[in-house]
Each structure stands twice: as structure tokens, then as C-alpha cells.
Design goal:
The protein has a 6-stranded mixed sheet, sandwiched between helices. It has helices spanning 28-40, 51-58, 77-87, 101-109, 122-141, 170-181, 189-197, 206-219, and strands at 6-8, 20-24, 44-48, 63-69, 92-96, 114-117, 144-147, 150-153, 158-161, 164-166, 225-228, 232-235. The chain is of the alpha/beta class and 238 residues long. It folds into 2 domains: 6-136, 3-Layer(aba) Sandwich (Rossmann fold), CATH 3.40.50; 144-235, Winged helix-like DNA-binding domain superfamily/Winged helix DNA-binding domain (Arc Repressor Mutant, subunit A). Bound molecules: calcium ion.
Length: 238
């Protein structure tokens, strides 16, 4: 029997465009915790306890992201993920108590965008949800960005310099998006780390320097990303 989905709106406190999060979690304490953190941050939340309900609710609400438990009654999280992917490209974050690598790989193979092992800090989960939403936002608003002779296709995740395609890694691409979205504005290493990596990365801000170095080399436009001493980096027009 299907239990009733619980929809939570946060009324006037809700930020415009924060979107609806679909939580699929059968454990009451965990579901309630995720829901309270997300709704406090302005997200509308629809919480269901099974995959079968998730597939029903997915089409009934403007869902921007799915937080999906793997161990569910009935259809498991992997199968739910597969079925969602068959009909939608909505971002999916998988949450599981089984933190072994094979599960992680399986989760990503069935089309999940990110993975959070239990026990997790709700703050970290919210940070990942936000990071994924941020990455998916510009794709809707403005699929093509350009700066000088660099053209970036957000949906196709392709970059061309002077009409020639350039191969970037996922993080190099995400970093370039952050910089190109804010031309002329200095972004600190912490900001770039947060936006491109989405969570506190164990490698620290040095990672940003390494990736900026790679970007300069691959794009062949070393002047595009300027180092601002003591502050961070900014994208400049030429
Ligand atoms: Ca569970």
C-alpha cells in the first residue's frame, strides 16, 4: 500500500527558484533530518518512503533534484535510479549505509550525479545538493557562454578556443564555468573550491591552483585567467 507523500512548502521564507527536492528515504529519522535541513534552506520538499511512490511524485511536482536512499522496501535505490533515468535527466544524489566502493560505482553507473555515504552530516548533504543545483542552473538559463574567443557549451559540456575543440576534465570544465560566469570579478580559492567541487575537498585550495594551471595550458590563453595576489583568480576579456 502506498503511504501518502508529504509535501512541505516553507511559505514566504522560500527563496525564488530554490526548487523542489524529492527525498526517497524509508527511515523516518533520516528523512525528517534531511527534510528539516533542506526546508530551512528554502527548498520545497516532497518526501516519500519508497521507489514506487518516488516515480509517481516525480511527475507531480517540479522536482529539481532527487535525494535517493539505496536500501528501500520494494524496489531498491539502484532500480529507482535506473527508472528515473529512463524518463528524466533530473539530478540524483544517492545516500546509502553501505559505503563500499562497489555500491558507489554501481550508483554512478546507473546515472546518479553524486553519492553521500551514511552516516553523513546533513550540512554536507545540503552543500552537495546546492552544488549540483548550481551546476545545473546555468544550463537552463544560458547554455552557451563566451569570453574572448572561448566558447563554452554548458549542456554539451564542450569548450572551443578559436573554433577548435579543447578537451577538459570535469573539474577543469566546472572551474572554467565559475570563472566565465563572473568575468572581471575576483573569486577566492575557497569560493572556486566550493562552487566547482561543491564540498570541502581534502586536497585544499592548492587543488584550485593546479586546475587553473591546467586550464591555462589547455586553453592556450594564459592571460584569460589572472592571478590576483592574496585574493584569488578572475577571468579577463583578453
Ligand atoms: Ca533505508
Amino acid at each position: 500500500m502506498l503511504s501518502q507523500a508529504v509535501a512541505v512548502g516553507t511559505g514566504g521564507g522560500r527563496r525564488a527558484g530554490a526548487g523542489t527536492v524529492l527525498i526517497v528515504e524509508d527511515e523516518h529519522s533520516i528523512g525528517a533530518l534531511i527534510r528539516s535541513y533542506l526546508s530551512r534552506d528554502g527548498y520545497g520538499v516532497v518526501w516519500v518512503r519508497s521507489g514506487e511512490e518516488a516515480l509517481i511524485e516525480l511527475v507531480r511536482h517540479p522536482v529539481r533534484i532527487v535525494v535517493l536512499d539505496i536500501g528501500l522496501p520494494g524496489m531498491d535505490g539502484f532500480e529507482v535510479c535506473r527508472q528515473i533515468r529512463a524518463r528524466s535527466s533530473v539530478p540524483i544524489v544517492m545516500v546509502t549505509a553501505r559505503d563500499e566502493e562497489p555500491d558507489r560505482v554501481a550508483g554512478l553507473e546507473v546515472g546518479a550525479d553524486d553519492y553521500v555515504p551514511k552516516p553523513f552530516s546533513p550540512r554536507e548533504l545540503v552543500a552537495r545538493v546546492k552544488a549540483i543545483l548550481r551546476r545545473s542552473e546555468p544550463a537552463i538559463a544560458e547554455p552557451i557562454m563566451s569570453l574572448g574567443d572561448i566558447v563554452l557549451d554548458l549542456q554539451g559540456r564542450e569548450v572551443a578556443v578559436g573554433g577548435e575543440p579543447v578537451e577538459l576534465t570535469t573539474k577543469e570544465f566546472d572551474l572554467l564555468v565559475c570563472l566565465m560566469e563572473n568575468p572581471g570579478i575576483v573569486l577566492s580559492r575557497d569560493t572556486l573550491l566550493d562552487r566547482a567541487w561543491g564540498t570541502t575537498y581534502p586536497g585544499g585550495t592548492r587543488t584550485v591552483d593546479v586546475h587553473v594551471g591546467q586550464l591555462r595550458k589547455k586553453l592556450g590563453r594564459p592571460a584569460l585567467i589572472r592571478t590576483v595576489r592574496g585574493a584569488g583568480y578572475k577571468a579577463v576579456k583578453s
